[in-house]
Amino acid sequence: MRSLIATSGFEKEVSTYGSGKLPESDLIALANSNPNSFIRVVKPQFLNSAIEQGTAEFLSASRENLMELIHRGVLQSLPNGIFLYSQFLPESQKTLMGWVVAVSADSYFSGHIKKHENTLEGKENRLVDHLEALDSMAEPVLLANEFTSELIELMNAEYKKSSPLLSVIDIYGHVHELRSIFDETAYGRILKLIDDMGSLYIADGHHRFAAASKYLKKHDWDSSKGVMSLVMNQQDLAIKSFHRLIQFPDKLDVEMLMQKINLDFESIEFSDLEKHSIKRNETIMLTKDGDFRIDFTNKLSNKSSAVDELEVTMLESYVLGPMFNLFDSKTDSRISFLRGDTPIHLLKGKISTGEIDYAFVLPASTFEQVMQVADQGLTMPPKSTWIEPKLMTGFLVQQF
Questions:
Q1: How far is the C-alpha of 191 from the C-alpha of 101, rounded, in Å?
Q2: Fewer C-beta neighbours within 10 Å, C or N terminus of the chain?
Q3: Taking the CA atoms of the chain, what radius of gyration do you get in angstroms?
């Protein structure tokens, strides 16, 4: 896999989180203040608001900005090889690691790469056009499965024995490092061990993998080049949920409605909420007049699909629909979402000020649940998971 990384001296300036992690206003400011930021490549409209995303002008500006970084020596080329990626999380003192390899497009079309989200053809095609313009891919797709002990040992040994080729500290204090393996025998062994795991599951980047596979197939490169992917041990992924926030000003007798729906529930004191670990098959409901723990265990069925058994599905089926007449969380404007690491007291604050009327706190799905959904050929409901590590755009760029 041919690649680009920041040249020594530019490490802190090039890579950045994208709009999924940072507010657009911050990214616009970054694009205009930092001539070496990769955000100029993927979002050229941040430099010129007259540019419309996906247009010929957008694609041309995107390519020009990439070429400028290369010509000015801000980015450097690397030879063919694979990489060990690591991200140190200071808050947990944990280091997440995985192998960055090229995965063939054939594996996507054959179903060897398993997905838990549907993709939109229009979005795929826009990304294909962007790949055509750049002849490169700005960040890996995140894939996972269970690593063998040998693959874990090789990963740990490589991390300890070699110095990072690239090291960047992001705005959250996370340390991103990249170690290179250019020896063909070594990376051949690693690639075989990854292949021996069987299917790989997309944790993040469904549209990017679909688009890159289309692009490679179009150029008959599906076997020789592959899609840049960060392959991780599923146990090392950090998965967070999304809170559900509801605007529903009508007065409800919540306890009466839950009894009518035949929900198992109990009142819970707010002082206990921050300490309470939300368990499988339950949700916490926050209201103006009191808070409740709802247990869905009596709603489980032996005939349920993997999707039916997700807490987010049970919430939508047994609470949001019957209580709020809210049946489509994709399109209903009364529901919004917040990352599950947002503290509960902030949700209560939004309720007390009238910004929202109800909030639901869910446990994070496990990656085993995600895999079961993918194995059954199903898709996760909207905003089911927030999976980390999140990768920075421009940290490692694949050149096709």
A1: 8
A2: C
A3: 23
Reduced to 3 states (helix: H, G, I; strand: E, B; else coil), residue 39 is: helix
How many alpha carbons fall within 13 Å on the CB side of residue 129?
15
262 vs 220: CA distance, rounded Å: 57
Nearest to 344 by CA among 270, 282, 238: 270
pLDDT digits (tens, 9 = 90+) for 131-176: 999 999 999 999 999 999 999 999 999 999 989 999 999 998 999 9
Q: So what's the pLDDT on residue 274?
A: 58
H-helix segments, the chain: 11-14, 24-33, 39-42, 56-71, 105-109, 121-134, 149-161, 184-196, 206-218, 254-261, 270-273, 311-315, 321-324, 344-352, 367-375
Residues in Cβ contact with 283 at an 8 Å cutoff, skipping those fewer than 6 apart? 293, 294, 296, 311, 315, 319, 360, 361, 362
What amino acid occupies position 141? V
- DSSP SS3 for 149: helix
- Give the per-residue SS3 of 95-106: EEEEEEEEECHH
Which amino acid, one-letter code, is at 53?
A: Q
pLDDT digits 0-9 by tens, 342-377: 888 899 999 999 999 999 999 998 999 999 999 999
Domains of the chain, CATH where assigned = 3-239+387-399 (3.90.1530.10), 242-363 (3.30.1760)
Residue 188, by phi and psi: left (phi above 0), alpha (psi -120 to 50) or beta?
A: alpha
Residue 371 CA to residue 200 CA, distance in Å, equals 9
- 192: number of Cβ within 10 Å: 10
Q: What is the pLDDT of residues 32-73, one digit of tens each?
A: 999 999 999 999 999 999 999 999 999 999 999 999 999 999
